[in-house]
Design goal:
Layout: H1 3-33, H2 47-62, E1 68-74, E2 77-84, E3 86-88, E4 93-94, E5 101-102, H3 106-120, H4 130-133, H5 139-142, H6 147-151, H7 166-169, H8 176-184, H9 200-214, H10 218-230, E6 236-237, E7 251-254, E8 258-261, E9 276-278, H11 280-289, H12 298-308, E10 312-317, E11 322-333, E12 336-343, E13 348-354, E14 356-358, H13 368-381, E15 390-391, H14 392-403, H15 405-418, E16 423-424, H16 427-439, H17 443-452, H18 457-470
Parallel strand pairs: 7-14, 15-16
Antiparallel strand pairs: 1-2, 1-13, 3-4, 5-9, 6-9, 7-8, 10-11, 11-12, 12-13
Length: 471
């Protein structure tokens, strides 16, 4: 690749990043400034609503848009639970209700809970210094960092995206001391307390802190203080190299080849922030216990829900702009996604655990909180919603890759004329998949796909780059 071509590809990539960032800002702005945060009706449960949830999920299953387990409960009663897809595709082992999944950053809520329990016992305070609790942590890096900073992602410790060669770094097994050495090897981004930067490393340190002040391992605390008291029998740390019964394998989608084993992640890297396995039913027990005082006192629950744990957020209810106030977690890790929602006033709880995800996009498997949860909430609260549709961009992409340009043109025509009720046409998905073809050096196919795709500035730019390269 010559310098001119490299520069063009760099410009295209930067434009893509800016476009994605702008879209995220718009979504955030809309979610914050929505003016329809009106009171929702009380939830009433009817057979018709349960049937509607079943029919909705059948549509997701038929569309191959969800693989995993899902549970929906209201007022202490489970209305719907199901499992679909394979826990292990090679062995054709199906997912079941009690399949264990990596729950990614749902782990953080457990970590916060353990810390708050220890704090209530007087074993640490929010303003305690990191270096006072972990004196082996370098003084020059840690002296200004408090427990509060770590909890609120304001410690100055960098987040994963800024770790050089993260994909390689996270595959290496490290002891606690080696992880502390790795974390402290990076310069602080801002000074502690200056600004927010999401940091899994910060929660690794919280995990180390609760072990140090308690004198017990994380798993001992987890079992003694959370799992045993409320009956969570299938929640435990995932340790690389260990074999677990009914444990799901994680998969990533390759747009050309389908589901593939997700990149390896050594779980020593995810300690405290994403190293737990759990099931949908265990997470339901966790939700139910939070209505009582077994896990946290009233004072600690206030901190858990309003400051440091399972925060309140605005969540869409259907497609007509209605918003609910809910505790929401949307988490992901290599090959897995976990979504967990709770609306306290109506005791609504919805969780989805899946072992299939796309690396960085949401074309085949949508956002659980948007695509699934929002529609279920619409059924419960009697608000309008639409049925899920599949990606037209991907159907056309597959026709092109499998059968050539003529087949892709015909597929596009057929979907536009006859199946718009079952397929959506999203500009950004065409742009992403055109770029996939380009990155795979399938330049003829990329050009053909650009000619079929909706005309956008990015499609125009990529077309120009391909044509110039051909000369």
């Amino acid at each position: 690749m010559d310098k001119e071509e490299a520069q063009k590809r760099k410009v295209y990539t930067m434009n893509r990043i800016r476009s994605t960032f702008s879209l995220l800002l718009i979504i955030i702005f809309m979610s914050i400034n929505c003016n329809r945060f009106a009171p929702l009706p009380d939830v009433t449960i009817t057979d018709e609503k349960v049937i509607a949830i079943e029919e909705l999920m059948e549509r997701f299953y038929e569309n191959e848009q969800f693989y995993g387990t899902i549970l929906v409960a209201v007022d202490g009663n489970i209305l719907y639970q199901n499992a679909t897809g394979y826990a292990n595709r090679d062995s054709l082992i199906p997912n079941t209700i009690d399949t264990k999944f990596r729950v990614a950053s749902v782990t953080k809520q457990i970590t916060v809970m353990l810390l708050l329990q220890l704090m209530e016992e007087g074993k640490l305070r929010l303003d305690d210094k990191l270096t006072d609790i972990l004196p082996e942590y370098p003084e020059d890096k840690g002296r200004g960092i408090t427990v509060r900073h770590l909890l609120t992602h304001r410690s100055g410790i960098i987040g994963g995206p800024r770790v050089p060669a993260l994909d390689s770094v996270e595959q290496v097994h490290r002891s606690r001391d080696e992880m502390l050495e790795l974390i402290s090897s990076f310069e602080l981004a801002p000074k502690p307390g200056a600004r927010y930067e999401y940091s899994n490393f910060g929660y690794y340190l919280i995990g180390a802190i609760i072990e140090r002040v308690s004198g017990k391992s994380y798993n001992q605390l987890l079992q003694e203080r959370v799992c045993i008291p409320i009956g969570m029998e299938n929640t435990l740390p995932d340790v690389t190299g260990m074999t677990y019964e009914k444990r799901a394998t994680g998969y990533h989608y390759n747009y050309f080849n389908g589901p593939e084993l997700a990149p390896h992640l050594d779980m020593s890297f995810a300690f405290g922030c994403g190293h737990l396995l759990s099931t949908a039913e265990d997470l339901y027990l966790f939700d139910q216990a939070l209505y009582g005082s077994v896990l946290l006192s009233v004072e600690m629950k206030d901190l858990f829900f309003n400051k440091y744990g399972w925060h309140y957020q605005k969540v869409a209810v259907g497609n007509d702009g209605y918003i609910a106030k809910a505790n929401l977690i949307c988490a992901s890790v290599n090959g897995f996604k976990a979504n967990m929602l709770r609306i306290t006033d109506d005791e609504v709880f919805i969780t989805q655990l899946t072992n299939h995800k796309e690396q960085n996009q949401h074309i085949l498997q949508g956002w659980g909180n948007v695509d699934i949860t929002s529609r279920i909430l619409a059924i419960l609260y009697e608000k309008p919603y639409d049925l899920p549709r599949k990606s037209a961009a991907y159907e056309i992409f597959r026709a092109l890759v499998d059968s050539g340009e003529v087949a892709a043109v015909q597929k596009n025509s057929d979907l536009l004329e006859n199946q718009q009720d079952k397929f959506w046409f999203k500009d950004e998905e065409f742009e992403i998949l055109a770029h996939e073809l380009f990155n795979a050096s399938m330049f003829d196919e990329a050009l053909a796909y650009c000619e079929i795709a909706p005309i956008t500035s990015e499609i125009k730019e990529l077309t120009k780059i391909i044509q110039e390269q051909a000369h």
